[in-house]
């Protein structure tokens, strides 16, 4: 069993109070804590996907802690129980939040290898954050990664268009996407499914791409599929090949399960939890 989960707020001079859940690693014995096998920072998905993934992230954090990893589940500013509102968020601010949390983990567990665990659009943040980490190169754990922010943003904006069509506003929906982009380009905000999307956040997501970290480390790519014979998407294959060429140690796996980040009801994919722990525990390949 892992130790008691610690709810806390991280705060700094230029950082809004950030809510986080700290899962300490399971002790070897009741009175002798284990040296953690790694320190894992969780970066959640964008907007409503964050809520859809929350249960799976909690289950995974507990499983990793039970396997001897320290895990920090972070709510980025404007999300969850962290400070500010969603309309106050920016991509640069989220990167600052993630770096602050990563440094907290490094200070708490200085000898533990650092893993940046991104889910969906959180993978875009994790890959960009990797270049800002001091010390040894961090490792990446990617759950169903978004490889480009632009189509992900467009998919989010189309939620508003779908709502307009359902309400009989076909004329309003016809030019809706262009109108929303114009509003954001002009520095305004767009209301989508209860989220006030600010221009600074939209621009950052629009420009974000899953970059290959410059310093070689370990990369674990996991996805889920309900197909009988699943395979990685071409974009994923290309990115992983680029990572191998850059010297990263890459492992990937697709497990059976639902696309829980977009299902109507909260769903679980137990095979993903087991596969994630197994990939992290796999011994690194010698160079």
From TrEMBL:
UniProt-recorded Gene Ontology molecular function terms: hydrolase activity
Gene3D superfamilies, A to Z: alpha/beta hydrolase
A Pfam cross-reference name: Hydrolase_4
Leader sequence segment: none
Domain of life per record: Bacteria
Claim: Hydrolase is one of the keywords in the record: yes
Keywords: Hydrolase
Domain Serine aminopeptidase S33 as annotated: residue spans: 35-159
Protein name according to UniProt: Hydrolase 2, exosortase A system-associated
Organism whose genome encodes this protein: Pseudaquabacterium terrae
